[in-house]
Amino acid sequence: MMKRTLVILMGVLVGAGCTTKQGQASKKDKDITAQNPIFQNVFTADPAPFVANDTFYIYTGHDEQAQGIEGFLMKDWLLFSSTDMVNWEQHGAKLRATDFAWANGQAWAAHTEQKNGKYYWYVTVEHGTIPGKAIGVAVADHPTGPWKDAKGEALITNDMTKQTDIFWDDIDPAVFVDEDGSAYIYWGNTVLKWAKLKDNMIELDGPIQTIPVPEFTEAPWVFKRGAFYYLIYSARFPEEIDYAMSDSPEGPWEYKGNLNGALPNSPTHHVGVVEYKGNWYLVYHNGQLPTGGEFRRSVCIENLYFNEDGTIQPITRTTAGVSAIAN
Ligand code: FUB
Known about the structure:
With about 325 residues, this protein is mainly beta. It is built from no helices and 20 strands. The chain has strands at about 5, 45-50, 55-60, 75-80, 85-95, 110-115, 120-125, 135-140, 150, 175, 185, 190-195, 210, 215-225, 230-235, 240-245, 255-260, 270-275, 280-285, 300-305. It is globular. About 45% of the residues are buried. Bound molecules: beta-L-arabinofuranose.
């Protein structure tokens, strides 16, 4: 696939009335910002940021629904990368729902993690024979692939979870690997579920458990900063972003409140958080490209700031995005 470098400096602002907050950019760099949404030539959703090899990657879903038509049309997942947060390389579709022979399309939210020198891309798809959504996993030796189904079957299927009787409650995998190598998968719609992963990253290691955070809808994301573990998730509908904190990836989780209100033009609100070169970033999607909307979403990025006690400051959504950092 031909690579294309997107240099997004100053374009037409999408939306109005937003302020810009500078990160820890050098003085020389700080006039240069990315533009929100950061990818304006393709509809992107459900971003999963991931840092490896000194590079900031964003794995995204790909909205292909026609304007004015209801429902998600998502066939593959896209990959983008940057080393300065304003110049983005577009790698194209690196994984497709059809790469999972047991699946029946519908490339919903996904998340990439790393362990033992390999990369694992956890995806939501529709299962071909077990009614409902399922979670699969692909593996690669490099963040850009090539990727292949790591298991030849689903990791999680709808018949493994009985907490609800809906067919789309096994979606939105979020994987967290702790400093001691312990790996966890969190997922769900309506009920937030989690399980340990075996060292091979492609099998569950123990029972499926639940986390009783308030008003959970979907899209969990777990990360660690200092002594604290953070669980960020989409709450209510239209979705807002709430979060909880713990001193263990296994909980108990203490609810800490709201970080981001509902979005213009997108009732879904799927976020990911990573640290890169000393700055923390929150990546999310909205529906604010000129022909965008609920099923034609676009990935945006903001800085994430913490208070001294470890709690997170509410997000300030901007049209300017984040500042360039030294490369
Ligand atoms: O993109 C399809 C679904 O919409 C995701 O799985 C949810 O998180 C919501 O963003």
